[in-house]
Design goal:
With 155 residues, the protein is an alpha/beta fold. The chain is built from six helices and four strands. Helix 5 links the parallel strand 3 and strand 4. The longest helix has 21 residues. It is globular and about 50 Å long.
């Protein structure tokens, strides 16, 4: 309810009518609340979608389903991604495969819901030592390509 009021007021006060807004799943709110807010705003004629954050969805304090199941539940509402990994206990924004998210399942779920948006890594490269930056960037590019390949193989 708070999200609906906030977004409605924000858009009304801004006078902007030709843009959309993406609601992000946060670690302190269940997926059901996000779906409810999205669907209410959509019924009110607001161009709305979901920015699905894989790391947030993997934190087990709030989410009782796995990341792939959350994607399937949100379905076509997902318009963009924040892709990062963790061990399900903190929002550490690690590179994929440095945590415990089941990426093959995630890529299949994204393909199953017909995801068509961008594939954005949301990482913390500033935490990587300067001497390892090049290797970290190469790793991220390589992993990103592999993940896109997985996604494409399920389409």
């Amino acid at each position: 309810a708070d999200t609906v009021l906030y977004v409605t007021k924000l858009l009304k006060d801004s006078g902007v009518t030709k843009i959309g807004i993406a609601l992000e799943n946060m670690i302190d709110r269940p997926i059901g609340d996000l779906i409810e807010a999205h669907d209410i705003l959509e019924k009110e004629g607001i161009r709305v979608g979901v920015c699905f954050d894989t790391g947030h969805a993997h934190i087990k304090k709030i989410y009782d389903i796995d990341v792939a199941d959350a994607i399937l539940k949100l379905g076509k509402r997902i318009k963009m991604l924040h892709v990062h990994d963790n061990m399900s206990n903190s929002d550490r924004h690690g590179a994929p495969y440095t945590g415990s998210i089941k990426w093959e399942k995630v890529m299949k779920a994204l393909a199953d819901v017909g995801y068509e948006g961008a594939f954005n890594f949301e990482l913390q490269p500033e935490k990587v030592p300067a001497a390892a930056q090049d290797a970290f960037e190469r790793y991220c590019v390589s992993v990103g390509r592999a993940m896109i390949g997985m996604f494409e193989s399920h389409r």
